[in-house]
Amino acid sequence: MKKYFKNIAAFLFMSLFLFSNKKLFSQDLHFSQYFNTPLLVNPANTGFEPDADWRIGGNYRNQWASITSNPYKTFNIWGDMQLFASRFENGWMGLGGSLMRDVAGTGGLTSTKGYASIAYHQLIGYRSLLSGGFSFGFVNKRIDISKLTFDNQWNGKFFDIKIANGETFSTNSVVYADLQAGINYSYFPSENIYLNAGIAMSHINQPKESFFSNSITDTRVAPRFTFFLNGSIKLNDQWILNPNAYYSKMNNVTETVAGLNAHYNISGDGNMQVIGGLYYRLNDALIPMAGYEWNNYSITINYDATTSGLSDFNQSRGAYEISIIKRGISLGTGGKAVKCPVVRF
């Protein structure tokens, strides 16, 4: 019986996605550790790593495994680097890319997204930095329709796949181009305080996304607006606090996440740090996180404990994530030509 209700829930959710005949009223794929997916949040973050020349990262999210036998599984791999730091006066460029894949549902609804991004960063005086960037990529969404059942196939006792589904699909796979852009502003009032804010717009070109022909429905992906606010505060040689907040709006759907994480210096030189934090997604989940950083590697894990009405069905078991990042200095560079202030141990 429990499995039956799980399948019904998955079927209803899939139906809402497939048969929408207007703009998609949903959020894009996302991670609770938004601060560890910088290129997805804002392309102006490309190449903005004050303490390194390059970085690569990976993210994995598993969501709703407690209420469906086919939970959302989201993967993300990304990387970026700094360029031309010695050619621009107090500025540099960033170049990066990301690849995301998400699979969910009985029909194996699969989303694959690949983006290339570029940004420019310019110091303004001694205390400010202005960044701007954009990204361009392609998205593929596909589904195995043969694994789905529809209302026309209900024979009064069960879903009979031998009965025609009565739907007018024109394809089971769509591909489209996608464009996003953003700006960031950073302020460094002292060596112990760093503040950063940014805003970005995704799906600027409002691409079409539908498994039906355009004569039946003209379903476009609505623009998505993202805002984030970030800070780093060095309390002493042992503690650095990082409060931050994230807000996203797509059509009439919004997402707000806020909280902080703290880094504790256990080695004395900053090469080994313990990370702990707590975040809250408004009207949805409480998100504790923990991690460890050593020799420019960092790994963080979080768990989304559901606080919304969905907790009655999933016993507050929402999602878990893991993030791994490696930062480095390019060989033979001899250090950066442009020095950007950063809070560090």
Work out the number of β strands. 14
Major sheet:
14 strands, antiparallel, barrel
Q: Portion of residues in helices?
A: under 10%
H-E order: HHEEEEEEEEEEEEEHE
How widely separated are the two ends?
55 Å
Outline type? globular
Side-by-side strand order of the widest sheet:
1-2-3-4-5-6-7-8-9-10-11-12-13-14
What average pLDDT do the residues reach? 85
Question: How many structural domains does the protein architecture include?
Answer: 1
Strand content: over 45%
The CATH homology group name:
monomeric porin ompg
CATH topology, by name, is Porin
How many distinct helices?
3
Description:
The protein is mainly β and 345 residues long. It has one domain (2-328): monomeric porin ompg (Porin, Beta Barrel). Helix content is 7%, strand content 50%. The chain has a 14-stranded antiparallel barrel.
